[in-house]
Amino acid sequence: MRRSGYSRRAQYSVFTGYVVAAIGALIGAVLLGLSLWRPASFNGVRGAAQDVVLPAGEAGAEVRDTGTNIFETISAYYRAGSRNAELRREVDLARVRLAEATAIEQENIRLKGLLDLRESDVEPVTTARLVGSTGTSTRRFAYLAAGRDKNVVPGMPVRSPRGVLGRVVEAGNNISRVLLLTDSESVLPVRRATDEVVAFAEGRGDGTLRIRLINLGINPLKVGDVFVTSGAGGLYQPNTAVAVATEITPDGANARVIADPAGTNFVSVLPIWEPEILERQRLPIEEQLGE
Amino acid sequence: MIARINPRSRRDRYGSRINRDHSQLLANFVPWASIIIASVIPIFPLVSGIPIWPPLGFLLFLAWQFVRPGLLPVWAGFPLGLWDDLFSGQPFGSAILMWSLSIIALEYIEARFPWRGFLQDWMTAILVTGLYLALTALLSGGSLGYERVLLVGPQFLLSILIFPVVGRLVAILDRLRLLRIRVIG
Q1: How far is CA B174 from the centre of its chain?
Q2: Where are the alpha helices (DSSP H) in A6-157?
Q3: How far is B58 from B55, CA to CA, in rounded Å?
Q4: Domain ranges within chain B, ordered by starting residue
Q5: Helix (DSSP H) and strand (DSSP E) numbers for chain A
Q6: Distance (Å, rounded) from C-alpha A178 to C-alpha A268?
Q7: Shortest CA distance from A140: residue in chain B
Q8: Which of A30, A134, A257 is facing B89, going by the closest CB pair?
Q9: What are B64-121's pLDDT values in tens digits?
Q10: Please, is B131 exposed, middle or buried when counting C-beta atoms within 10 Å of its C-beta (0-12, 13-18, 19+)?
Q11: Is B97 in contact with A207 (Cβ distance < 8 A)?
């Protein structure tokens, strides 16, 4: 410790400073232990603070938005000629595909009629901007500019036009915190888009997902396989795009998220898909079976 | 008439010395305010899938201690860390603990090696930031695993490179802090 001179008073005040600092560190350790044990302990305080400070980020989100638009505009001029030829070829192809799609759609209507299924489009709870994300922490949370004022409650899935982004873990008054799919605590039941191969998509914290197959055996996955939500667990609406496999591992694959939060502007918050299932999971096992 | 030889002879880098003094409020307010703002900044610029931003609040917190040792009281880690915890996404209490420990460590280094150059300060900052990033990654409440520590690699490199810039910024803020704007007499 630094000697502050011969003054007793100065020495004592330096000493008190150290004692207070040590007590502070101790309180920090206790709080850390508490919030590792019960992660939701301090959500109230945090939500209140975020409500006050983060709305400033809306302006930032708008700037970010125009920023990408400027670059896109410039690059569009830059490659106009080759783009034109490319687009013409694509349009030809797309016409063919469109015709095919109409055929499939008609067939679908016929089959659905047979099965007596009805298309249920989910009405989003609200649409809002992503204000920002925890840029420094290895935990991946994003902040959404809508909270309890727009009827957002924890658990609701968040999606962009491309696919699932994550789910709300904490809702403040006008800001809510979203657990992104890439966070290491996020687990999402998925299936391969083409068949019924089911798996869990776990975040790895580095911007990619790990697909873990539920039925182990010969790994049927291939690079480029698309995964969609399976709807198991009752939280996410089924058949929403999640990830594309990029690398095959012994027990599944590593995959890239389709809805990259960096490229998203407006996202929609959806209601929980099947709240009854979630309710039932909270009951003890005897009651679940007793129904 | 006798012309004044040097028109700036009655000024120092903080402004006129005649009739002006440092503002008590500004001198105490600027360091805290700058750290508080820097803690929130990394949220806004990018919604990214990986942690890429250097912990700006923490870097400013270190830089203030290098530029003006003893300006922040030893207990400053508690309130400033508490603020950082509200926004960082880490489990609550992590920054309170880390910031308190690092300010105590830096006080010790300051007492042990009072005469340091920029290079030593930079090395200290690299060491402290590295430990800070690794420990916060381990204590982030996610599933434990050593590969998580590797995730902070890019962030750590950026922090190393940005630290001299942060130091400059703090030096500029320090000049702002000591501006002679209070009128006396």
Answers
A1: 11
A2: 8-37, 43-53, 57-78, 80-115
A3: 5
A4: 16-182
A5: 6, 12
A6: 12
A7: B49
A8: A134
A9: 999 988 889 889 999 999 999 888 878 888 899 999 999 999 988 888 888 888 899 9
A10: middle
A11: no
